[in-house]
Amino acid sequence: MSRLTDIETHSFEQIPARDRLARPADLFRLLFGGCNTFSTSALGSFPILVGLSLRDGVLALLVGLGIGSVLLAPMSLFGPRNGTNDPVSSGAHFGIHGRLVGSFLLLLTAICFFALAVWSSGDALVGGAHALLGLAATPLMLGSAYAFFAALVVAICIYGFRLMLWVNKIAVWTASGLFLVAVPAFAGAFDGSYAGTLHAGDTGYWPALVAAATVAASNPLSFSSTLGDWGRYIPEGTSRWRLMAAVLAAQAATLLPLGFGLITATLMATQAPSYVQASDYIGGLLAISPGWCLLPVCLIAIVGGISTGTTALYGTGLDMASIFPRWFSRAGGTLAVGLLSMAVIFVGRFVFNLLESVSTFAAVISAASCPWLAIMVIGFVTRRGHYLPADLQVFNRGQRGGHYWFTGGWNLRALAAWAVGTGLGLLCAHVPGLFTGPLSARLGDLDLSAPVSLLAGGLSYLALLRTFPEPEAVYGPRGPALLPRPRRLPSALHRHA
What we know:
Blueprint: H1 24-33, H2 38-44, H3 46-49, H4 54-72, H5 78-82, H6 86-89, H7 91-94, H8 100-133, H9 139-159, H10 161-187, H11 205-221, H12 227-231, H13 240-253, H14 255-271, H15 281-288, H16 294-323, H17 330-350, H18 354-382, H19 389-392, H20 412-427, E1 430-431, E2 435-436, H21 438-442, H22 449-467
Antiparallel strand pairs: 1-2
Helix pairs in contact: 1-10, 1-13, 2-14, 4-11, 4-13, 4-14, 8-9, 8-16, 8-17, 8-18, 9-16, 9-17, 10-14, 10-16, 14-15, 16-17, 18-20, 18-22, 20-22
């Protein structure tokens, strides 16, 4: 990978130490570049969309983003430690076959956020062309824009990590500068006292506030299974605090696009023409933008959409190669998932309501990812960061055995805890206008899926670890942390295949 035009040769196998040349700063660029676009601004507009005031919207964004970022930060430790992606690393806790849970979550996340990036960027590009050049915003134009963005993102991901990193280095500064250029276009009409339609004491106030915070938290949590895709190129000895600081800094920087979405949404609520649907953030933004600001808006759509799309798609192509190593290379897996995602984009946009589809995907991802993340972080702590990278590759080689084989390749402790957390999370989920879990309905439509699934999954896993201790060999010479030392099992049970 000496040149940008060289296709990445490394796949799911452990990255050799000589090729680990990335730094925590690169992790920052990829994380922030993946958020610094209108798809994130659309998430920032959600508090206003559900009726909150500007003040309450700021509160919801800060609380949700803060909690999500703190939960995400420890996930940056797996890639440098094991030199592979996070679903493969999860085999240490879920079992060699159980790592498919992480692969499933990664695929859902990729489709959801790749679709959101292509959709928002394509709509902004076509809408801008209509406003600037008078081109009709026909389904053919929209379809062509979606295909252009999707094909470009897939091509970058096929070339791999080095080109993706270069694209995001440019995107971080370019999109940030364009957002700042666009701020004066709306500053004059901005009303800091925007009151919204819901206030404390109203029936729907708390459900709306919690839902807005959950949406904000979903932005960092969406990266929970992808950090290892990039972190695997960072040297193993890199400070854990520097890695987590890079994650926290990147998420703090996303306040720029989130805040832009929140502020412009207050203007749309009062200034957007009646023909613009409230849920159409891009259409509303173009409707209230002055003429000179349309070009920066289109450029943000292009640059930001590419960076977000690449960070969403790259990892699942990598993981597809690890699940089906005989069928797919990393590039082939990326192309296959890219084509599947493109089909979802077109069907979702022209057959179903894409916004509703993405909202449903996001709710499922949140409920299923939080317990998975809790189990991974608890596992890292209890193992004291001790892993055997070679044993993580057993599944990929088509072999059996190793320290992480557990019960036929499945760690039933982690799987049971994940199922409990996900199930309870879905029962507490609330997607306005689409789905309300029975427990959420009893709580006045509060969406508590994220905290409930996180706590239920994490506490269940700790309880199961104490009740059914894992083999001593998985903990290394220092033994477990937070747990009693397990009994030593016969060495034959941990023999390599």
